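Dissemination and training. As part of the outreach component of the grant, students in the summer workshop were shown how a complex can be specified as a set of sequence lines and then modelled as a single object. The example used during the hands-on session is reproduced here so that future cohorts can follow it. Participants entered these lines:
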Amino acid sequence: MENKNPGMTASRNVYLQMKPLAEARRILLEHFPSQAGPGTEFVSVPEAVGRILAAPVTARLSSPPFHLAAMDGIAVAAADTFGCSEVQPIELPVGDKAVYVNTGHVLPPGTDAVIMIEHVEIIDQTRVRIEAPVFPWRNVRKIGEDIVATEQLFPRNHRITPYCVGAILAAGVFSVEVRCRPRVMIIPTGNELVDWQSPQFSELEPGQVLETNGHVLGALVEAAGGTFTLHPIVGDRLDELKAALAAAAGGGFDLIMTVGGSSAGSEDYTKPAVQDLGEVLVHGVTMMPGKPVLLGDIGGLPILGMPGYPVSTIMAFEQFAVPLMTRMLGQPDARRQEVTVHPTRKIPSRLGLEEFVRVKIGRVGEGLVATQLPRAAGCITSLTEADGIIRIPNHSEGVPAHKPATAELLRPSHFIDNTIVIVGSHDNTLDILRDELKSQAPDMSISSSHVGSLGGLMAIKNGVCHLAGSHLLDTADGSYNRSYIRRYLPDREIVQINLVLRDQGLIVPKGNPKEIQGIADLGRDDLTLINRQSGSGTRILLDYELMRHQIDPRAINGYSDEEYTHMAVAVAVLSGTVDVGVGIFAAAKALGLDFIPLVQEQYDLIIPAEHFKTAHLDILLAVINTTRFKNRVVELGGYDTSRTGRASILTPADQENS
Amino acid sequence: MENKNPGMTASRNVYLQMKPLAEARRILLEHFPSQAGPGTEFVSVPEAVGRILAAPVTARLSSPPFHLAAMDGIAVAAADTFGCSEVQPIELPVGDKAVYVNTGHVLPPGTDAVIMIEHVEIIDQTRVRIEAPVFPWRNVRKIGEDIVATEQLFPRNHRITPYCVGAILAAGVFSVEVRCRPRVMIIPTGNELVDWQSPQFSELEPGQVLETNGHVLGALVEAAGGTFTLHPIVGDRLDELKAALAAAAGGGFDLIMTVGGSSAGSEDYTKPAVQDLGEVLVHGVTMMPGKPVLLGDIGGLPILGMPGYPVSTIMAFEQFAVPLMTRMLGQPDARRQEVTVHPTRKIPSRLGLEEFVRVKIGRVGEGLVATQLPRAAGCITSLTEADGIIRIPNHSEGVPAHKPATAELLRPSHFIDNTIVIVGSHDNTLDILRDELKSQAPDMSISSSHVGSLGGLMAIKNGVCHLAGSHLLDTADGSYNRSYIRRYLPDREIVQINLVLRDQGLIVPKGNPKEIQGIADLGRDDLTLINRQSGSGTRILLDYELMRHQIDPRAINGYSDEEYTHMAVAVAVLSGTVDVGVGIFAAAKALGLDFIPLVQEQYDLIIPAEHFKTAHLDILLAVINTTRFKNRVVELGGYDTSRTGRASILTPADQENS
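and obtained this result:
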């Protein structure tokens, strides 16, 4: 990996005037004529599911194509039966005036009704007796009852469903004219990128980044009804990029996307390349993520320069590529279901930027609560974990807490209704619980946010979760959680359920190079600590142990650097930037680090009584009590399930006193 | 086509005890163990979109895999910058204490922060000057910020989305274990069926029916996440069906479906075949459509005997095959969005049957109104036209008009919000209008129901449509619609817009074999008429003409047989069951019939003022006024567009008088 000297060797290309999202999209859509697109093709009807009609479908045949018997019985001319009755039955000769038919048979000539076999008395092979008259067309499916030849079945731009296949085939139409799928070329750029599908690739080397955006964009293109070609990675060289773009522009594509290099840095060559080969329409959009997007035209083809951060590139795709593609397909704008949510915390936003804030959404009590996910455009998990997106317009400084806001849903609303929201301390067994729940009850999900044990109790207090994970040590009596619940949730009836007992200790690099023995070493000058955030049970544990060992926190290097999860602490140790952190054995084991046990502590689920008595929680608790769950927990190491599932109830303080 | 003598040659196999739907489904799901299914396979991550994880995905690498620069600038050790300021700037040597980096570069060893290039003063190639300190980790994406190696990314049974592809690849996982798609064998049965894909097929012969259900079921299988094999058509022979079933049961499938022959008729061999080879679990379910379904087991494999009517087979698929397949895939039950609708008319239902009533749904005024579609199980268009399904339980005799009922949506709710509901007289140009609207405004649709002109005015009165198509002749003054609007909608402000002028006349077989000249002939003894329903403008026209010609309607053969559309009248003439009907030229032309013009009449759109002043109607009227629409209408023949689009406003009667 070369660290060039961009400040000296190349000029930075500043953004042209940045455009608001709506204006940028308008410029794009107006620049490319709406008729332009991938043309049409004929496909066999069964293959046409999901495709869009380019011309109306007109019935060639009627359905039924002939008068058909709708019952098993005998076909008759209704007029022959008029006047007959139980007292005056009539006899009809079989094969002449009475013809046996089954459901679906063509009505024989001269007949216009069917008498159900149950109402026919069979005298012998040649004669039947009838005791009631039948009206014309009784038990007959008349020609054209369903479809009349020449009628229009579906208008153009209609999307073919499996049901449509039945109607179109029944109308004698076996192939239909549909819009071709838009063909999209995706060109990933960047010296740092490596192609994991290349035969040369074996393992990531320092400085290398896996090319993932091209595959994500390809999948998004297919979901939007298109097909894609993924170009080999293009290096950060203007000539290379121009050559790739020029070839793509002549390659029969309907849309070209570059990925990365669309910003204003010294190695961002999308803008100069498009400028040289065609026209830059927009460079920079006041949206976030997705700001460094470029919209251009090479030879009449739309060129989208997509940002390199994964969330940015997805947002830019959805805001620019999707509208282009849906219009090529004659489809209305894609829309997501919108719901009203209540943000659990204020969501600030920068004036002048339209922000797409990813949120987790939970149905807690009456309404939907939304909790912000990390906003970094590099965090793809902020999208995969998200249930919805809150858009904050340019002119807004953000969304206040608890006030209603609108979120676009990324999952069906019943998915959200069936999600158990856990907020609080992080523990690796929550992942096992999530997997076991999804395995045993596929319609249920767990959403868990890690804000520390005290944060979890506050989330219960604020009504934004169903339950909290907590391991708050009462240093006075060695109990866990009970006294904190009493203090922070005095008026609530709470069920406290043990999830696991777990080992907490010092996480140190493999081989323990600095020979750390225990808490007493943390005062050493040659050590740097990574701490956990205030309010986390682990932080309380550490502070308690430091006090017991009479170590001044201010004397510890790194005491003020905080991480939010055990795994983040372990990562910090692994990366070599710190020497030690406090965490659980499972985190050390997962990353191959050494572990010096300090204590076994109690990790509980704290559940308000009103949520405890619900069907969802019944299922969750049943899963916790399965041997399978406990066995998987024990396999992690550092866990003890001897008390898993044990419950105690804390009645409100005032009731307790009375 | 053989008309055998089922009453004599074979015994009818009566239904075993019919089961309610819920019980039948329970029997099916409990009979087949939930673990059974198609197994798992590993697939490349980009190919895994839409697939279901069979095992949780655990991150192999962290993302970012190293500390990365989040900005273009210089990487420094933050400690080196402490204490500097504008008055006390510091200089750092390039390449040693200050390393140029671009966004995405790995942080060089010894550095822990990035200063944006804009805040760096470049002295020369070897030195830079800094005027403000930087905190550790500023402008750095720390290792594991997005994903931490060993953490669980997605639990099993999670469905892979395009977003997930980004997260899984970034975590260094390139293939995932997913559940195999259920393999389904579809065996269409029936002597009357023909395979349009067979090289022998050229055109449907009398008695033949196109095999369409197999293709529909195949498309539904794919939509439910499975793959299918379509078996050649099997004749109505027990040995043939048994051979096909036995081969399929040993063919590596997860589910076998026969189509047709599942009922209790003499040529229905599904039951005896399954009885011989395995076990019949359920035969007959109290649901409609879908009653003659059979659920069975051959060698531990689920066998579904699907009814032959297209709507029945789809309903049986959705109620039995989908739950089996979703369970094989570890997915929650499929659910459709439910909405509250108001039926425009009473929907009666038979006690003891769970009915699936297909309805059109429109947003008219505040709420959603639902209008029943044809209930015949043979009418596939009752599903393709449907916006939703109202389920009427076994114990109910139906749904009253105007009372709220629950409908499952078959289309997104915004589709329904953007649908213009037209009720009233039928005219072929409405199909052209629908196609042109969908072409020029893809997000909009037209739903049209044909209940005659007066029915349309009643629909306006009852608030169940946006507008009505009407051609009601005032026989007193020769005007159209105005006096009827005055009479039936006296208190409403109404806009009357001409859609077309059209020729009405007598539709007769090609060559006019009975030499019909005009209305006067209708009294002839040798002629049979097909009539239109009361309240239709065409019926009023006919009655008026009969009166003018002093013909007694009771003297006309067939006067009491009514059809609801011009096309149905034309079909009756084409099929030879009648000699003449009254209708529009377009209908005669469409089916190649002869036409004897009677009058040119005025076909108007009748629009309440409150709907006229909406964006949707603006678009519709713009389409009506396009040359394209008018040209296509004229091409049909028998139409005159000289007054198309002309509007007049009828104020409420009381306002007019005041």
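Chain B touches chain A through 131 residues (CB under 8 Å). Students were then asked to discuss how this feature might be tested experimentally.
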